[in-house]
Amino acid sequence: MFLKRTFSFDAAHRLIHYHGKCEALHGHTYRLAVTLRGETDREGMILDFVELKAIVNEKVLSRLDHAYLNDLLEQPTAEYIARWIWGELETPLARPNCRLHEIEVWETASSSVILRREDMEPGRVS
């Protein structure tokens, strides 16, 4: 079973290794979806939505919302933002009954990146 919750944050960045409009300072209202895969626990939940929200707020949104992403990542593409978020959430969300399965980051309403657990496996080309 999968459990998903979406979030949003506003941030600015510039893509210094890109040649085009996005190399200039600009901002986005990003959307983030965090998906867990697991089995229900004794309470009938994979993870309480309230607990998921608290962890994402503490580990991710408190650092990304209204931030200049280049202070955190040299080349803050949606791809690198998704990898960074994975690294921040994988351990705090691990439970005996579930674990992080997927991160999706939308840079615009029509453009997103999806990072799945299998993409993070050693030796995997991604």
TrEMBL record:
Active-site residues, Swiss-Prot/TrEMBL: C22 (proton acceptor), H66 (charge relay system), E107 (charge relay system)
Reaction catalyzed: 7,8-dihydroneopterin 3'-triphosphate + H2O = 6-carboxy-5,6,7,8-tetrahydropterin + triphosphate + acetaldehyde + 2 H(+)
Cofactor: Zn(2+)
Top EC group: lyase
UniProt-annotated binding residues for Zn(2+): H13, H26, H28
Gene3D superfamilies: 6-pyruvoyl tetrahydropterin synthase/QueD (3.30.479.10)
Keywords: Lyase, Metal-binding, Queuosine biosynthesis, Zinc
Cofactor note: Binds 1 zinc ion per subunit.
GO molecular function, one term: metal ion binding
EC number annotated for this UniProt entry: 4.-.-.-
UniProt-listed InterPro entries: 6-PTP_synth/QueD, 6-PTP_synth/QueD_sf
Gene Ontology BP terms: tRNA queuosine(34) biosynthetic process
Signal sequence extent: none
Domain of life: Bacteria
Pathway in which the depicted protein is active: Purine metabolism; 7-cyano-7-deazaguanine biosynthesis
Family: Belongs to the PTPS family. QueD subfamily.
Protein name, as recorded: 6-carboxy-5,6,7,8-tetrahydropterin synthase
